[in-house]
Amino acid sequence: MKRAQLIGFSVAIVAAGLAYYVASALVRPPEPITVEKKIDSTDVLVAATDIPVGDIVNEGSFRWMAWPTEAVSPAYISKNNGGGQTVHKLSGSIARAPMLAGEPITESKLIKAGQGGVLAAILPQGMRAISTKIRSETAAGSLILPNDHVDVILIRHVRDRAGNDQNVVDTLFRNVRVMAIGQQIQTKEGKKAADISATTATLELTPRQAEMMALANSMGDITLSLRSVADLTSDPARAGGLDFKVKDNSVRVVRYGAKSRVYGVN
Description:
This protein is an alpha+beta fold. It has two domains: 41-121, Alpha-Beta Complex (Type Iii Antifreeze Protein Isoform Hplc 12); 127-237, no CATH class. Helices cover 19% and strands 32% of the residues. Strands 5, 6, 7, 8, 9 and 10 form a six-stranded antiparallel β-sheet that branches. Strands 11-12-13 form a three-stranded antiparallel β-sheet, with no helix packed on it. A hairpin with a 2-residue loop joins strand 11 and strand 12 (250-255). The protein is elongated. The model is unreliable at 245-266 (pLDDT under 50).
């Protein structure tokens, strides 16, 4: 190969390499630019571990976690606002609602010792808890769990004008929340049925409905009809087809326009 050809070949190789380098630089993505931005944070009291409803908490149940100051709710307990003393005061309280690890603690989620029991802590304001006897065949085969919603059905024996005994069925309430089955007030993880040995179901009712429920317990057998979650509404428990009228400290039962016996409330 002649010297001129060799030089030309070398120059071509160098030019090709230079062209490749320039092309690679043009298509190479730019280096990412990292910008550090300081965010004001506040130490907020959160649950150290999962806290089930009804658990008694202590200082080890909580920990401090940094939260963006703009996201801190006034209900949260912050370290800068006397949080240390608040933690000491909350020790020994009862959880009135389940809390997940890392969830901010508020005083409304806890009830202090001496202010009532667990059931009183989770009972909404203005409502009453009243129990009724149940069996497997009257509680959907023991498949009703706390926080399920049910219809309350009363089966009673009456005597017609001819003196014949008859069974009468009435739906007392619809869409009633079950607060507890026996002593169980919360569904345990993986549990698909209530304790089959439980003999009572505690229902959430208004004060007037609680009176009606107490009377119905003495009138006949109570059956709980489980409602589908697709049927649940935000409406409170509603009265059914049995009309209880109060007059002079007594309750008169009216069904289909025909008055029956009068049962005293006191």
